[in-house]
Amino acid sequence: MAEALTSKTCTSCKGGIPPLTPQQAEEFQRQVPGWELHNDAHRIERRFRFRNFGDALRFVTRVGELAEAEGHHPDISFGWGHAEVSLQTKKIKGLHENDFIMAAKIDRLADEATA
Q1: Which of 24, 58, 85, 94 stands 20 to 30 A from 17 (CA)?
Q2: What is the pTM (predicted TM-score) of this model?
Q3: Residue 86 falls within a domain, yes or no?
Q4: What is the extent of the structural domain holding 85?
Q5: String of b and e for 5-33 (b: at least 16 CB within 10 Å)?
Q6: What is the domain-level CATH number for residue 97?
Q7: DSSP reduced 3-state for 80
């Protein structure tokens, strides 16, 4: 299912549209099961584990490059052996399909990083 999301590209969100409902967010979340819904389904987050600081840093750098390419920017924190990524479409103060597209693509990067 995540393959359907990874084949898409984030679209520009100009605001003025409602965020996904909790039910819609749950449907998308099923396609990226490692991610958790937070703040009444207004944000998704995932924690990734790595062997060391360098692996975490390389992953965060690749996520940053992906974010620039997609024009959709997550909040990221990281340290020795871990990275946390949080996604929300800030213009609508909630979740949009773009957040799940990014989540699926980030999962793919994580799989590549640990392979």
Answers
A1: 85
A2: 0.92
A3: yes
A4: 43-115
A5: bbeeebeebeeeeebbeeeebeebbebbe
A6: 3.30.1360.20
A7: coil
